[in-house]
Specification:
single chain; 148 residues; mainly alpha; disordered C terminus
Amino acid sequence: MLEEKFKRIIDLFRQSIEDSTVDLEKICREAIEFFEHLKGKLQNGTETEKKEALRIMNEVSSEMNKQIRLLQEKMGATEEQMRAFAENPSNFSPEQWRLMQETKDKLSKDTKALIQLIKGKSTGLEKRPKEEEKKKGTKPKKSGWLRM
């Protein structure tokens, strides 16, 4: 399932490069859905599923970088020029810009959570409640008021 979602996102991205038409809403929706699924696998999956999710994350990163380089070549633009174009709201309709910003914020938040999950740090996404972590190695101090 994760592999299928990955392939679908890459196909959408490739089509947008080849056809010069972009269904921005569909790409954004698919990307969010993919990262949500990936996050779920890393949180609740078996060890095998977690390893597969990490492998796919690396594959996504490599493939997206490859597609971005192809787009740069096709457009004859540098990375800086592409970034400047993407960060300029006047290059998009108000609806496209809003959708892009919402997706960017959501993916940024999910990516940070995924990184924290991978590093094993607390993100609030783990199954184990924080109360259990507090109990480990801490003993309440005894009050001295009854001692004689």
